[in-house]
Design goal:
The chain has helices spanning 2-21, 29-33, 37-42, 48-62, 79-86, 98-104, 144-157, 171-176, 226-235; strands at 69-73, 90-95, 112-116, 128-133, 158-169, 181-186, 189-197, 201-210, 213-222, 238-244, 259-266. The chain is an alpha/beta fold. Residues 12-26 have low confidence and may be disordered.
Length: 267
């Protein structure tokens, strides 16, 4: 165990060195990794049926009116946006990944649109009855101030008493059950995954080879817990209505729940 901790510390120091001395690519890690086709290959096993049930459960619980306008913030290729639209809502899905939005746009209808957008910024002149931020699409940044900027943008884009739904990993369970090394072969590509926790972020190093080229990407997400979200949201004029621990909307348990799903209302 001590050897693993020492190796993790070395990797963290190397990450910090790259940041400080400007060795890293100018893009933020998520802008780089999420815009590749390999990201979607690695996570191709996402369950669309489960996602559809989750969305239906949320809509029924919140009693969102069919006339509502909804924002899917960090929508990826738009699977949740599509589900919301099929339920009868007007939906805008936005994401920083140009490639993801290009793919999502193939599903556009009169009441379903997609656009490239940074979640830290306000969509000027647009208001929504509810904002969905799903599948751990939060906490990508280095500082709390950037988290606050996201939440403040969400607040600005919501109508009075509008709903905010955040679906995040249960960070405590992830840390407690962290699989440090894993190998996955998908579509002929073998992804070597290495995970570690530095006390504030959960890292995933992703290495693979394809078409004679070697690739290395890093995912890095803040290990935000329920109390962190409670403090962040209440400080920025949101009231937390409920906290759930899975897509069936069961009660949240920090030791056992797979997800941390927060339902809040704009004050």
């Amino acid at each position: 165990m001590q050897g693993e901790q020492t190796c993790a510390k070395i990797r963290i120091k190397e990450w910090n060195r790259k940041v400080i001395f400007g060795v890293m690519d100018s893009k933020e890690w998520f802008a780089d990794w999420f815009d590749t086709s390999y990201y979607h290959t690695l996570y191709a096993n996402r369950n669309d049926v489960e996602a559809a049930v989750f969305i239906s459960n949320l809509v029924n619980f919140l009693q969102i009116k069919k006339s509502s306008s909804l924002l899917d913030l960090a929508c990826g290729k738009g699977r949740h946006s599509i589900t919301l639209n099929k339920l009868g809502f007007t939906v805008l899905g936005v994401d920083l990944s140009i490639n993801s939005i290009e793919a999502a746009k193939q599903n556009e209808t009169q009441n379903l649109k997609f656009a490239v957008h940074d979640m830290r910024e306000v969509l000027v002149g647009q208001k929504f009855d509810a904002i969905f931020n799903l599948f751990t699409s939060f906490g990508y940044f280095d500082t709390i101030s950037e988290n606050e900027k996201v939440v403040q943008s969400m607040h600005e884009m919501l109508v009075e008493n509008g709903f905010l739904i955040i679906d995040f990993m249960n960070a405590q369970k992830v840390i407690d059950t962290l699989i440090r090394n894993e190998s996955k072969t998908i579509d002929g590509i073998t992804f070597e995954l290495e995970r570690f926790f530095d006390g504030s972020h959960i890292f995933k190093e992703i290495r693979f080879e394809d078409k004679g080229k070697k690739f290395h990407f890093t995912e890095r997400v803040q290990a935000l817990k329920r109390e962190d979200f409670e403090q962040l949201l209440t400080a920025n004029k949101f009231e937390i209505l409920n906290t759930f621990g899975d897509f069936s909307l069961s009660d949240f348990d920090s030791a056992e729940s797979d997800r941390l799903i927060i339902l809040a209302k704009k004050l």
